[in-house]
TrEMBL record:
Record field: compositional bias (Polar residues): 1-15
Methyltransferase type domain mapped to chain residues: 182-292
This protein's name: Methyltransferase type 11 domain-containing protein
Provenance organism: Triparma laevis f. longispina
GO MF assignments: S-adenosylmethionine-dependent methyltransferase activity
PANTHER family: METHYLTRANSFERASE (PTHR43591), OS06G0646000 PROTEIN (PTHR43591:SF99)
Positions of transmembrane segments: none
Length: 403
């Protein structure tokens, strides 16, 4: 995939050990046939994000930069076919239409160009704010130009510190180093770049998002960061295999028990089908697999005018009222109570560390009775702000803006 070391190289056909058809029934995802990812001879043109430069090491341009690539297809026997390019990502949300009856020449010409970005606009019938806000190229452009840094007002410790928290947690994985790591809802690739380029020893990294524009932003920023890292140090260790995947977190294209560690930074509040997403994450993790996440309490969103509605299609973000309620949600997805730690960084940042139970355990996942009183609610680990003074942003947090 361009300069990114990928599983999918030109002229190959790969039976992927992790990726499966996302439309496989959940009960069959453990033994589902692998996606066969093939490269074709079809050249395509893919547009990079506005942060990209024409070549690594050159100045960014304020408009999308077209670059060539090779078209990829992914399919299973008798299943739908998905597509992607070697210079963008594989789309495992929307299959391609194989019933196209256009003349051969016109069809080939059409495939020279990338699919149009899947952008949903406010006011349209199918617009879901928490899902579709980040499909906008304008949001992708702004994400590392002040948007993400603004999270510190809610108590977020800064990208560098948060990455270190996730990295250190993943160091307790039963697999050392973890073989397969997922950066879920990767956004512009703030954490993807760090997981890939800081010599963590991972074999494979999957950067995943629902937003086309965010995935393209991730790629262009990663290519630039990898170039800069090698320019500074020619002996920089080879980064892990990195594949970019468009997916729906509520319907993951991962084989059951195939993922060692999964990171979801500032993401859960943007998942419309939250319960399904968390259940899918639990299913995908290996026994002993680790889940690290950060999110907001609703008290922060009330200050920024976010809409709270019973209609998920109108609600701006998921509204988490307390650390305790967040822990309930995580446990409902299948994680055991004793394996979940939820920490509050005042005033409104939630940090989640969860471990999937090892196989053969006698404990059952916590069952939450909706009729229970407040006194029966699961307690969470709540850390006061003065106990986390060390989580203040370090000077190195400017790194994500520079690259």
């Amino acid at each position: 995939m361009g300069r990114v070391t990928s599983s999918f190289s030109k002229g190959t056909s790969t039976a992927d050990p992790v990726l499966i058809d996302p439309n496989t029934p959940a009960e069959s995802k453990a033994k589902a046939p692998p996606l066969e990812v093939q490269t074709t001879s079809t050249l395509v043109v893919a547009g990079l994000a506005s942060s990209a430069s024409v070549l690594p090491g050159t100045l960014p341009l304020p408009f999308p930069v077209p670059v060539p690539g090779i078209r990829l297809t992914a399919s299973t026997p008798n299943g739908p076919t998905y597509s992607g390019t070697s210079s963008s990502y594989i789309d495992l949300v929307e299959p391609i239409d194989l019933t196209d009856t256009e003349p051969h020449l016109m069809n080939n010409l059409k495939h020279l160009f990338p699919n149009l970005p899947k952008v949903s606009l406010p006011g349209t019938k199918d617009y879901v704010p928490m899902q579709d806000l980040f499909t906008s190229p304008a949001v992708s452009f702004a994400y590392e130009r002040g948007w993400r840094q603004g999270f510190m007002a809610a108590g977020f410790p800064g990208v560098e510190k948060e990455y270190e928290m996730a990295r250190d947690f993943f160091a307790s994985s039963p697999s050392q180093p973890p073989a397969v790591v997922v950066d879920m809802s990767c956004g512009s690739g703030l954490f993807t770049r760090r997981f890939a380029l800081e010599n963590n020893g991972y074999e494979r990294l999957l950067a995943c998002d629902y937003s086309d524009s965010m995935l393209v932003e991730t790629r262009s920023r990663y290519v630039q960061a990898e170039f800069e890292a090698r320019k500074k140090n020619k002996d920089t260790p080879t980064p892990p295999i990195l594949d970019l995947i468009r997916l729906d977190v509520a319907n993951l294209p991962f084989r059951t028990s195939s993922i060692d560690c999964l990171n979801a930074a500032a993401a859960m509040h943007c998942w419309p089908r939250l319960d399904s997403g968390l259940s899918e994450i639990h299913r995908s993790l290996k026994p002993g697999g680790l889940f690290f996440a950060s999110t907001f309490l609703s008290r922060y969103f009330s200050k920024v005018g976010a809409v709270n509605s019973k209609d998920i299609k109108k609600q701006t973000f998921q509204m988490f009222e307390s650390a305790e309620s967040v822990k309930e949600i995580i446990c409902k997805a299948g994680f055991l109570e004793e394996d979940v730690e939820v920490t509050l960084l005042e005033p409104a940042c939630i940090i989640i560390k969860a471990k999937k139970a090892a196989e053969g355990g006698d404990d059952e996942p916590l069952q939450i009775d909706k009729n229970e009183t407040q006194t029966d609610v699961v307690t969470a680990t709540v850390v006061e702000e003065n106990e986390l003074a060390e989580t203040t942003q370090s000077p190195s947090d400017d790194w994500e803006v520079e690259i």
